[in-house]
Each structure stands twice: as C-alpha cells, then as structure tokens.
Amino acid sequence: MIRIFIHHEIKAFLRTVGAGKSIAVKIVLAILILYLLLNVLALGFFMDKILEEVAPNEDLIASFSKTILYYFLVDLLMRFQLQELPTLQVQPYLHLRIKKNVIVRYLSFVSLLSFFNLWPVILFLPFIFKVIWVDAGHAAALFFIVAILGFTIFNNYLSLYIKRKSNLNGWVYLGYAALLILLTTADFSWHLYSIRNLSSWFFHGIIQHYWFALLPVILAAVMYFINFLYLKDNLYLEELGSKKAAYKNSTDIPFFNRFGKIGDLVSNEIKLILRNKRSRSSIIMTGAFLFYGILFYTNKSYSDSMKLFPAIFMTGLFIINYGQFMFSWQGSHFDGILISKISFSDFLKAKFLLFTTVSTLAFLLTLPYVYFGWHVIFIHLMMYLWNIGVNTVIVLFFANRNYKRIDLSKGASFNWEGVGATQLLLGLPLILCPYLIYLPGKWLGNPDIGLILIGLTGVLFVLMRNYWIRQLEADFEEKKYTIAEGFRNK
C-alpha cells in the first residue's frame, strides 16, 4: 500500500500546473542540501582533530561524548524551523477499504526520509569508526550508533508532534519555546545542572554499560506511538499539517505550502528577488559574506567582542542588505498592494518568514566555522537569534519611513536608487544595539553572559512577534499614503 501511495503522489505532482518549475526548485534545493551534507561530512571526518585542538589534555571519546546532547538540542530547534510536515490528501482514501493505520504508517515512514535524519549519521559515524571502533571496541561503537539513531528518530517524531499540535493551538509553540529557553538558561546562566556532564555520563557510560543505548531507542518508540495515535485521531483533516484546509495554496516552493497566504507572498517575493539584478545582488552578497569569518577567526588577536561583527553579518546580512529597501522593492506596484485584499499583517508576516528562512540557511552554512572552536558557533547562534528577533523589527520599523522607490528593471552596479537618510540611520541600531546588551555582561567579568542575554532578547522578540506586527501595522496605517506618494515619484 505504501508503494501505491508513493505512486499516487508522484502522479499528482507531475500533473500539477508548474510541475517543471517545482522540479527545477527541487534540483536546486538538492544541490544545496548535498553541499551542506558534504560540509557536515568534512566536519565529521576531522572531528577528532578539532576536539584535540579544543581540548588537548582530554580523552577524545570523553570530549566527544560531552557534545552530543548539545547537538540534539540544536537539532530540535532547527527541525522546528525547517523540517516540513509529511502530507497526504487523505480524503480520497477514507471511504475506501483502507485501514487508517496503513495511512498513518505511511505518513510516519515518509517523515523518516528527511535530510535531518541523515545529518547525524554523516556527522558522527566518521568519528565513531575512526576513534571509538579502534579504542573502545566494535561493540561499543555499534551501541554508540544505536544510541545516536535512537535520539535522531526521537527528535524526528517529537518535532513533528509539536508542530502538528502548534498548528491547532499556538500556545503549544510558546510552551515549546519557553522550555528550550529554560533548559539552556538553567545550564548556561543558573548552573542548576550541566547538559555537558549529563551527555558525558550517558554516552561515555555506554562503553561500560551497553544497555544504556536502549534508553533512546525506547524514547523513540514511545514518541512514534504518541505521534501515531495523534495522527490517527486527526485523520479526518483534509491535509495533515495544514491549519486551514479550505485554503488552496498556489506557491511553487513546497516548503512554504504549509504557511498558506503568507507562503504565497514569500514565494512571490523570492521570485522577485531572483528575477531582478538589483534584488538578486542581495542574495549574492549574503553568500559572499559567509566567508567573512575567515578574515576574523584566523587572526587570534581579535577578542569575542570583535567576533560579533562577522556573526552579525554572516547570519543577518540579508536582513540588513535586502531589508533596508523594504518596501521599495514593491514600489512599482505598491498602489496595487494598498487596494488588494491582502491584509498588511499578512504582508508583514511574510517579511518575517522570509528573513527567518534566509537567516536560518545562512546560520547553517556557517557551521563549518566550528573548526575555529565551538564558541564561535555559540556566538553565531546568539547573533542569529538576535537577527531574526530584533533586527527584523528594526528593519521593518525603518521601512515605514522609506519613501524612495526602486526601479527593478535597472542593474545593481553603481545604482544608488532608493538610498537615502533612512538607510544611513538604519545601520546604527542594527550594529550598535547588540553591544548595549553584550558589554555590561563583559564588564561583569563573563562575556558569555552578554552573549546569552543577546540570544534571549532575540528569542523574546520572536515570541512577541504578533505584538510587533500589530505595532508596525498601526505605524504603517499612519504613513502608507506618504509612502505611496513617494513611490509614485520617478
């Protein structure tokens, strides 16, 4: 039956309007994912060398064991941001002689095909075979693999369960975010416990007690069962994973299908970016600045405070570079937006989603900088949270004060169209505000306190996103006619 479901989905995909474009998008995404996985493979292959540099006086297996639970915490965060919900139009099958359990098993099986489940295998297996297989024995290495696969499957079904629940009840998302904040704060700030020590105790303990590896397997099985029951109870939904089944999404980018109208707006804006030279340059600059850290991290004289600069730009340059001309990119059809049925709150939500998606990809592509130490990735993570939380709000606030249109038909070279005093003022809060939070923590004697406060501020702004959208919408209502008049002036 699973083979028949797959066959039906392939036919449905090929018969849709714009299937050729969707295939092209999938090919591009596949190339990007392959590049990302090759970076992960290189990181896994040289992990023993990296750990030797980070902790030269510590046993390699012990040092490796301390980092694994941290990885799975970050993995949960990344899955919630990026992992797609497996979907199947179930209504045509419900009146047939097909058991619900078969449909639910298919959805559960498809979710395992995510590249997030391949990531830990590629990252950890090289180290396990190079070090643990040789030093601790074949059995210990195999049980290490069993434990890592167990945690991977547990994370897979836990993230899908939370996302499905949050689609029906937004408070679930807030509770999930609050729990992650408490877990990290209790470790890094309050020192109530240590995830590092817990990870070391569990994974290093597998060498002496192989049965430890059964715990994540049991957790994965329980999470699968919980997810299975939830899917079965909600199988009446037209499309699992969609909050409003009545809305037909027309986006050509599958990732944005589950966001409905907002996903359509983001998809259209991505097309705008890719089809015009001026806007496309913002993507090119974002990619080029991913190498910015090499200039800083190879120079050991730079302090952590200086490392905030590359972290801001590498994880948030798209927000700064593209966002500084918001809403000038739509200047030529801004009057049409004003009289359309699109609510401005949806328009703003689409901007937030676009910024979050691109910044998340940029953060993931900076992970190879772990070569310079895990603390570099910690700085990147804190600045990534700051960018998607605070800097997005700052950019959209200044967007309501930008009255200069941009002609997308013109090229990007030596084109100063749309640049004004607003853009000059925008750079100050984007770059200086993080230091207003970071420096007090540094002066107290622990720079990491300042970094954690930056990250928590970013998370707080993300949680308050609906509030900021209401404020920005009210501000826009006061200035929309002035903006429109400015955009009409050529």
Automatic annotation (TrEMBL):
It comes from the Bacteria. The keyword Zinc-finger does not apply. Keywords: Membrane, Transmembrane, Transmembrane helix. The chain crosses the membrane at residues 23-47, 67-82, 103-133, 139-158, 170-190, 210-231, 281-297, 309-329, 350-371, 377-399, 419-437, 449-468. Pfam families: DUF5687. The keyword Membrane applies. This is Uncharacterized protein.
